[in-house]
Amino acid sequence: MTTFAQQGRLRFGVNYTPSKHWFHSWYAMDLDATRRDLAQIAALGVDHIRAFCLWPVFQPNATFVNPRAVDDLRALVDAAADAGLDVTVDAIQGHLSSFDFYPSWTLTWHESNLFTDPRVRAAKVRYLRALGAALADRPNVVGYQLGNELNNLVQHNPASPGQIDEYLDELLAAATEALPDRLVTHSAYDAAFYTDGHPFTPQQSARKGGMTTIHPWVFSYDCARRYGPLSVAATHLGEYLVELAKAYATDPHRPVWVQEAGAPQPHVPAGDAAAFTEATIRNIATCTDVPAVTWWCSHDVDRSLADFPELEYTLGLIDTDGTTKPAGQAYADLIREYRAEPPTPAPRTTALVYDGDLDTRSATAPGGTFFDAWMAHAAAGHRLAIVHTDDTHRPDHLAARGITTLTTP
């Protein structure tokens, strides 16, 4: 069985967005359309996809996991295998492309807190176990994730960091029990790193699950518009968030999966998308302990579907007719280059020290003082690590990361 992280190899993948009916395709899967999509994806040279299960379709009742949806997922996994692609599966959606999805048994007079209600958590555990059992005999399923950007749901499901700790521990244990030999992760959008007081924390991202997952989006905190779509800040954002995530990890070599990055219009104009894609990936490739980059996303959203924010319609590497876009060609060219000659990470002997806590995270966000200090070094051609002040007195930790010099903003 292939493992997700492979020594000395940077993996490339896409977040699979079906070209026909978007993720609503789970209501009536067209396997022929899926196979066409996967053939187009494989032609880019990627080796894996990230697949998303719509939670209301897969678990329409707290005690019922939809067997038809599970069969469709297995069919998708098998079709990916036929195309030469590994699969990581996100179970609880949760949040996708600016929409939130709740099963009816969590709403109306059943309304429950998705993170703290024992009934909902027990149902999620039941679902994770059932889905894991269905995937256990599929060798190309290399990863299992709780769900996509679950922290998007905290506005309507308030919780404390301690309650989120308990939630993640319980669900990660269930997912690991269901698929004990696969990578098990959770993901949060970058508010976990950037937003003061947010209940999902950088420590949770950097210490729970099999590896850290990051989603460096240049629309967050208006990064691309604030600095420019091809600016140092925009094109080094992925690299920066890799290093920021490492600053919160207790394991000096914990892997950081760049699980989502993309070129959202109008933040990144169409004419700049290819250059932005290439620069972003080349900068990420200078980091150590990055096993994979998974671009968002495979296909554009069809404009026949209503009510998406404008940026969601154009994020694909492939358009809805199956034509590879300039950003998709740039991605394919880089994959071919790095397959022939794997990139060599840059030494990061100097680290910028971050002295902050959960109520001062905004300093590390685009526009923040720490962010701007790191980017000033990047603009000068320096590849800096980031270390939290708590680790500055741990010489073994610094040595393991190759850090010999500390500097402050």
From TrEMBL:
GO biological process: polysaccharide catabolic process
Top-level taxon of the source organism: Bacteria
One Gene Ontology MF term: hydrolase activity, hydrolyzing O-glycosyl compounds
Keywords: Glycosidase, Hydrolase
Pfam families xref list: Cellulase
Record InterPro entries: GH, Glyco_hydro_5
Domain Glycoside hydrolase family: 22-267
Gene3D superfamilies: Glycosidases (3.20.20.80)
Entry similarity comment: Belongs to the glycosyl hydrolase 5 (cellulase A) family.
Protein name stated in the entry: Glycoside hydrolase family 5 domain-containing protein
Organism: Actinocatenispora rupis
